[in-house]
Amino acid sequence: MVAVKYTLDDFVHEMNDLLVSQPNQEKIFDKGSDALSRLIANPDAIPERFRQPVGAGGRANHGSWLLHHSPDSGLLVTAVVWGQGDHAAPHDHRTWGMIGVMDNALTETRFRRVDDRQKEDWARLERDRSAVVKPGEITLLIPEVDEIHQMDNFTDRPTVEIHVYGQDLRGLERVRYNLETGAVRQMMTEKFDNC
Ligand SMILES: [Fe+2]
Questions:
Q1: Which of 124, 143, 159, 167 has the most C-beta neighbours closer than 10 Å?
Q2: What span, in angstroms and rounded, lies between the C-alpha atoms of 118 and 83?
Q3: Distance from residue 69's CA to the centre of ligand 1 (Å)
Q4: Any idea where the domains of the chain sit in the sequence?
């Protein structure tokens, strides 16, 4: 008998069943991580075209692909592909998130904001930790607590991740940080061109 593999639909149903029960954040991460683990264990669950960089335009070496959005629950699922040398400067998220590596590896660096937040356009970040995240591993984004990260692909081939958020990132007011100058730049995306 051939084992039935876990699909994107299975994941979406499981997450929406979970979210409709209005769980606390701990339960979202607990049950959600289990579900995401099953999804990232099966790369075939995601069409191959969504597991590649976009290949053209200003950021040809990167891919951010919308896989699913449930307007009722807010659930947003994307595939994010980091080509060789790809980089994202430190930024926040303003919603809970789970990131699972499906193929290859990525270096994720987390930061703490340590200024008094009195200035709108300036911040001081301290590096908290850095880790190479590998296939099957999941990292969590916790709003206000632990949600500022930088991403780098220091390997020689693309890395595929599945990103899961509690809210549509489009139209969400977020910020990007400049580590050298301390400048804080507002960002609001209209499409899935970031993470
Ligand atoms: Fe991010």
A1: 159
A2: 37
A3: 17
A4: 8-187
Cα-to-centroid distance, 4 and ligand 1 (Å): 32
98 in Cβ contact with 29 (< 8 Å): yes
CB 195 within 8 A of CB 64: yes
Fold type of domain 8-187 = Jelly Rolls (2.60.120)
Q: Provide the sign of the torsion angle of the four alpha carbons 140, 66, 56, 45, taken in this order.
A: positive
Ligand 1 ion: residues within 5 Å (CB): 195
What is the structure's pLDDT at 1? Answer: 58
Q: How many whole angstroms separate alpha carbon 21 and alpha carbon 28?
A: 10
pLDDT of residue 193: 61
Distance 91 CA to ligand 1 centre (A): 6
pLDDT on residue 194: 61
**pTM given for the model:** 0.94
Here the tokens at position 74 are: 């807010």
Q: What's the CA-to-centroid distance between 2 and ligand 1, angstroms? A: 37
